[in-house]
Amino acid sequence: METRTLGEGLVISEQGLGCMGMSAWYGPTDEQESIATIHRALELGIDFLDTADVYGQGGNEELVGRAIAGRRDEVVLATKFGNRWFDDGTRTIDGSPQYVREAIDASLRRLNVESVDLYYQHRVHADTPIEETVGAMAELVAAGKVRHIGLSEAGPETIRRAHAVHPITALQSEWSLWTRDPEQAALPTVRELGIGFVAYSPLGRGFLAGRFSSPEELSDDDFRRHHPRMQGENFERNRALAAHVRELAEEKGCTPAQLALAWVLSRGDDVVPIPGTKRRTYLEQNAAASELELSDDELQQLDEAFPPGAAAGPRYADMSSIGR
Predict the structure, then answer these.
(1) Mutual orientation of helices 31-43 and 280-288 as an angle, nearest 10°?
(2) Has 55 been annotated as catalytic?
(3) What is the rounded distance in angstroms from the CA atom of residue 90 to the CA atom of residue 75?
(4) pLDDT tier at 213, thresholds 50, 70, 90
(5) What's the chain's average pLDDT?
(6) What is the C-alpha to C-alpha distance for residues 9 and 51, in angstroms, rounded to an integer?
(7) Band of the pLDDT at 318, cuts 50, 70, 90?
(8) Cβ-count burial of 179 within 10 angstroms (0-12 exposed, 13-18 middle, 19+ buried)?
(9) pLDDT for 91
(10) Is the pLDDT score of 43 beyond 60?
(11) Which pLDDT does position 225 carry in this prediction?
């Protein structure tokens, strides 16, 4: 697995591993298989692991911590804060400096590590100036608890203001053939500032991989079953778009997931996709996408099959905290 550099010197594998689904929101989980998947990722040279304190209400950080016990030096570890949960199951966004300090200490305990390599603000907090949040994050760097800081789903103005306080190493946002929103404003901004881009859900939450043909195939506790893009007419329109990807993959002699990942990888050396999986079989298929080379003609065919704005429906039912 080749490496790529985010921001001012964070060197990571050109694919990461999104760990969210190992603990939350994507149906049944299997801790033993999930840990085996993390270990297999390290064997394949995928050293960039992505988690967050809200995934499984801390359970995912604990799982990742168990998986990397005794192997900390093999891992580039990223986690996030900002989605604060309460005992009654409700959540809110909190970017206050005091919570920044509390959140990192809780994450370090769950991960059982002394520091994390990349610490993101998961969502921008409308009631706390970004300068105050990033200022507190910069204190964590000075204290040795965090090596690099990042933002997730932030808009251009927020990115600029944050970067003026402390260098931002990476912006993490959804980017794939069916979500090309970053291309309009966020991507040009981070490239101007020398910030790397981490693409989550590069397989369109599994949709582009062709792993289900109807939301009814998903378990009741899989949040994708009720995703806006997987309802009614939206689903039918998006399924037709995904069919084009499948046809092009067949011509290429690869899986649809590999083609979709290869497209994200082709976007630039400052882009790192973090496909999520909780199974070794899918991990190995995803890793093989790094070996695919797409010709200019193939890239043009993909752009024509899935142009910006083509996907039907919003990315989330509630978009109020996205892109500030």
Answers:
(1) 30
(2) yes
(3) 32
(4) low
(5) 91
(6) 21
(7) low
(8) buried
(9) 83
(10) yes
(11) 66
Q: Which pair of tokens denotes residue 309?
A: 């704005």
Q: Which of 55, 99, 119, 120 is catalytic?
A: 55
- Residue 149 parent element (H or E): strand 146-152
Residues 6+ apart with CB under 8 A from 285: 255, 257, 258
Q: Which of the pair, 215 or 94, is modelled with greater confidence?
A: 94
Task: Note whether 286 and 277 are within 8 A (CB).
Answer: yes
One-letter amino acid at 88 equals: D
* pTM for the whole structure: 0.92
Separation in Å, CA 111 to CA 55, 59, 67, 257: 13, 10, 9, 30
Asked if 162 and 154 count as a contact pair (C-beta separation under 8 A), the reply is yes
Note the pLDDT tens digit of each residue in 275-291.
999 999 999 999 999 99
38 close to 69: Cβ distance less than 8 angstroms:
no
Which CB contacts under 8 angstroms, 24+ apart, belong to 24-27? 24/55, 24/56, 24/57, 24/59, 24/60, 25/55, 25/221, 25/222, 25/223, 26/222, 26/223, 26/224, 26/276, 26/278, 27/218, 27/219, 27/221, 27/222
First to last CA, the chain: 34
Supply 162's token pair: 């944050």
Nearest to 63 by CA among 103, 27, 102, 22: 22
Locate 260 and state its tokens.
């979709």
Q: How far apart are CA 324 and CA 88, in angstroms?
A: 28
User: What residues are paired with 92 via a beta bridge?
Assistant: 84
